[in-house]
Structure formats: C-alpha cells, structure tokens
Amino acid sequence: MEQYRTEDEQVEALRRWWNENGRSTIAIIVLALAAGFGWQAWQAHDVTQQQQASALYLAMLRAVDAPDAQQKPQAVDLAVQLQSDFSSTQYAQFAALQLAAMAVEDGDLAEAEAQLRWVLGKAPSNSDTARVAQLRLARVMAASGDTEQALEILTQSDPGPYGASWAIAQGDILLAAARRDEARAAYNQALVIAASGGAGVNLSILQQKLQSLTPVPPGAGTEASGEPVMESDTVSVTTEANDIPEE
Predict the structure, then answer these.
(1) pLDDT of res. 222
(2) How far is CA 197 from CA 7, 161, 190, 191, in A?
C-alpha cells in the first residue's frame, strides 16, 4: 500500500479517488438502499394481498355452506373475484377448485375442466393442490367420456404420497369402461399401497370395490342366509375426489 509523506498528498489522493469512484459508489449505495426498501414494501404488499384474499375466501366458503340456495351466485362472484384480483395467491386456486366442484354439481363438465386446468396453470406441479386438481380432472374427463385422456393424466403425473388414491381412480375409470380385469389390478395395487401407509384411502370402500370384481367360486353362490351373492357390474365414476386432502 502506498505511503504518503504529507497530508496534502493524502488529500489529493482522496480527491482523485473520489473523482474516479465516488459517483459509482453513491450509485451502489442508493441501489442497495432502494432494493432494501423495495423488498420491505413488497413483503408488506404481499401480506396485505394474502389477508384480503383470505377474507374473500372465508366469505366465499360461508356463501357455499349457507342453507339458502340464493347464496350460491354470491359464492361464484367471490370465487371469480379471487381469481381476478388475487390470482397469485393459493386462495385463488382453492376458489377455482370450489368452482369446479360446483360446476360438477350442475352437470357442467366443460366448466369444471376449465377451472381445474386453471388451477394446474397456477399451482406448483408437486403441490397437494396440483395433485387434487389432477385427480379431479381425470375423473371429470372420464365422466365426459374421454377415458384415455383421463388415464393419461393419472399415468403421467406424480401422485406423491397419494398413490393409492391414483390407483383407485384408475380402477374406477377402467371399470366404467368395462375393462374389469384392468380395474381389478388397479384396485389391488391401491390395496397394496394403502397397506404400506398410503394416505387418504377408505379401506372399507376399496375392499368392497375389489370384492365386487372377485369371481364367485363354484358352489358359493349363496351366503349362509340363503341369499344369492351378487357381483356388481359397474361402479360409477365420481367427478370429485374426496380421498386426498386439500391444502
């Protein structure tokens, strides 16, 4: 490091340094301060957005659960507002799932599909929200008659911890398409996954579905009560998946 013999030399050196670097140093400091204040402002804005979206979502749920059927249009309006004004929040994704469920109840499968695809365009691919949307979309596509696309959605997506639910949906879709052997294999797969700790599965219902596809041995056509053992021919494909939780 250079040693200066006089104070004048030091002052002159500082002056030269300032002329060469002072403005850029100030710019860096200003940018750093602006970034810090900007980050704090963004965080405050994000918190406000989340709070407002949460309030709208709770209001929507109250309208959905209201015994008065006239509250349904209000629930739809609130859900649409969430999608429009707070599309970056998870509450908007939940609202779209609710709109899809309401569309299914009304028999509007095209609208249900549109809402579920909107969710998939917003939610992270490995999130539970995305998995709920994928599973429901598969069931909606199957109910619309597009069995192959429904199965493709399930086979090309990652079920995460909900592999049993995926296999049950596959079984339901295959059974509705009269592909009974494949449906039985899917239900058996679901049973194996559920037995090893699969999440969100009603084992009793799964066993009933599997039993309905199990051939009745010769001579076992009646129970002890004398009533004939009936084998179910079809299992309806529901368009909403309640076997895995929403976030």
Answers:
(1) 46
(2) 78, 9, 11, 10
Distance, CA of 228 to CA of 195 (rounded, Å)? 30
The answer to whether the beta carbons of residues 72 and 49 sit under 8 Å apart is no
What does the alpha-carbon distance between residue 104 and residue 120 come to, in Å, rounded to a whole number?
Answer: 17
Burial bucket for residue 127 (CB in 10 Å: 0-12, 13-18, 19+): middle
| Average pLDDT, rounded, for the chain | 78
* pLDDT one-digit tens code per residue, 164-175: 999 999 999 999
In this structure, are residues 42 and 88 in contact, taking their beta carbons and an 8 Å threshold?
Answer: no
Query: What's residue 179's pLDDT?
Result: 94
Which amino acid makes up residue 71?
A: Q
CB-CB contact of 140 with 109 (8 Å): yes
